[in-house]
Amino acid sequence: MSEVAYERVQMNLERLRLTRIGDHLDGIAEEAARHEWTYLQFLDQLLEAEVAARYERDVAMKTKLAHFPFVKVLEQFDFAFQPSINERQVRELATLRFIAQAENVLLLGPPGVGKTHLAIALGVAAVAQATSVYFTSIADLLEVIHRDAKEDRLAHRLHTLCKPKLLILDEMGYFPLDRLAAQFLFQLVSRRYLKGSIILTSNKSYGEWGDIFTDQVLAAAILDRLLHHSVTLNIRGQSYRLREKRKAGVFTDFAEPEKEDQPV
Question: Which one in 97, 138, 210, 230 has a CA-CA gap of 20 to 30 Å to 168?
């Protein structure tokens, strides 16, 4: 390839924003010459490099927009440590059919058993399949709701949270919801019903949700919509975060309070 033609190719690649092809042009051209590729094989390899680069950029951007607090994948989850979890069921969820069918996933269990890890891992799997995802803890959502209420932006927030194909709501139950937050959550769940999936983690059983919302009727209405098309995973076991401390003898489980003697 002449120097003039080479410069023209690089210039046109830049104009077309085919940046990865430009970066790999020399190396792929040398390999094509060594292996005597056809023109079609050479073009195929150039385009593969560009497609791979665009996929990486897309995943990186969607991961950033998802606002994950950290990135975890299923391969990092220790299913042996939590035998109460049906690994086959989780692997099935990772196929993302539940998103295609606008179903919800609810992960219930005590603190530290891996609920957030699984929620994020399913979110990361969704991003890898070019699906829009947004993660927020309930604590952060409460703060946002009350700030938006003062600025008359609740409708805009509701619209924004309805956009992602998958919405992850983490740590339901650690903080009680006042009426404003409860009504907002009801509207959010209602608008996403049969349209977009929700993954929700909670340390509370469904029977305790009335205490979270301080309104049994509203709690029942939210659960009705969440559970209609959903999968629930009940996780029972010890905390991942404390297992090393237990091994070292630094931490022991809280002892249950002694029961008072019953009268004979």
Answer: 210
Nearest to 235 by CA among 56, 50, 109: 109
Distance CA 61, CA 64 (A): 5
Contact (Cβ atoms closer than 8 angstroms) between residue 68 and residue 134: no
Could you list the residue range(s) of the whole structural domain that residue 49 is in? 3-60
Cα–Cα distance, 116 to 130 (Å, whole number): 21
Cβ neighbour number for residue 248 with a 10 Å cutoff: 8
The domain total for the chain is: 2
- Chain segment 27-86, per-residue pLDDT in tens: 999 999 999 999 999 999 999 999 999 999 999 999 999 999 999 999 999 999 999 999
In a domain, 260, yes or no: no
Give me the amino acid identity at 40.
L
Predicted TM-score of the model (pTM): 0.85
